[in-house]
Amino acid sequence: MGLFSFFSKEKKQDLDKGLEKTRESVFTKLSKAFVGKSKVDEEVLDELEEILITSDVGVQTTLKIIERIEKRVSKDKYLGTNELNRILKEEIADLLQENNSGDGEDFDIPDTQRPYVIMVVGVNGVGKTTTIGKLAYNFKKAGKSVVLGAADTFRAAAVDQIKIWGERAGVPVISQGMGADPASVAFDTLKSAISQSKDVVIIDTAGRLHNKINLMKELSKIKAVMQKLIPDAPHEILLVLDGSTGQNAIEQAKQFTAATEVNALALTKLDGTAKGGVVIGISDQFKIPVKYIGIGEKMTDLQVFNRTAFVDSLFDKD
């Protein structure tokens, strides 16, 4: 299977299908831009710049990619447009690697940390609870024991939703109901996980952004309370963003990275949009690894991000 001997054929097919709208959009634009062109010149690079920006890669990241390609073109004056796709893929994959985004396939956790604590943040409506449910399912499928904490107590529906996902994934949910202290829920969840020797703890948090100061205080309090039981918790602060919102996802990332120390990203709903390029821009702009991507409705349609497979699916017509 060449490059993807480590990446299962089934997962690659799911990824190809999930990124189909973005890939078709990019290739339609590339095909039109390169008609009758044989050499990569300034005009071709201008067209490529526009294509990347309109694919929601973002202006700053696009300019960085174009600059890298220009350097390679300057080394080989006769670089053809037929080689541009390969170079584009290589440069974007390198850019993602520099931001520590994705080499994996499996849902795994460090051997040294048990339980491994993930605190999930993100605004309502981005697929946060769905992502938590799918994470729980996939960790369990990978042989890990999981417990969920319903610490989004701001909305009654949030507690109910995570309980439903817990049932679907076949994992327990610790909750105290609407209006409870989120930090207390997180504490109880960790206490339960420690007593039962669980491998993974996933804590949901409130998805509101109307007051960044209150959000910061709440998340800081949750972390402080968890650290009474596990000094280095949470090990992962996962920000969930809706990939279909394009540049709006970048604005949300700005807000949450200012409120707490996000160290991992999950981009959801990439299958329903032609804005898949936002994955590249967000990773580059915030220097935070993309860890998971959502490419469909199935439980298995949350994938561990693999940059090589992602770039291949995004830019390979076949």
Describe the structure.
This protein has 12 helices and 8 strands. The chain has 318 residues and is an alpha/beta fold. Strand 6, helix 11 and strand 7 (290-294) form a beta-alpha-beta unit. It is 51% helix and 12% strand. The protein has helices at residues 9-18, 20-34, 42-54, 59-75, 81-98, 128-141, 156-169, 182-195, 212-226, 247-259, 278-286, 307-315; strands at residues 116-121, 146-150, 173-174, 200-204, 236-242, 264-268, 290-294, 302-304. Residues 1-6 have low confidence and may be disordered.
Overall mean pLDDT stands at: 87
Instruction: Give the number of DSSP strands.
Output: 8
Low-confidence stretches: 1-6
Number of helices: 12
| Sheet having the most strands | 8 strands, mixed
Helicity level: 40-55%
> DSSP strand (E) fraction?
5-15%
Structural class: alpha/beta
Shape: elongated
Order of helices and strands: HHHHHEHEHEHEHEHEHEEH
Rg over CA atoms: 21 Å
Order of strands, main sheet, comes to 3-2-4-1-5-6-7-8
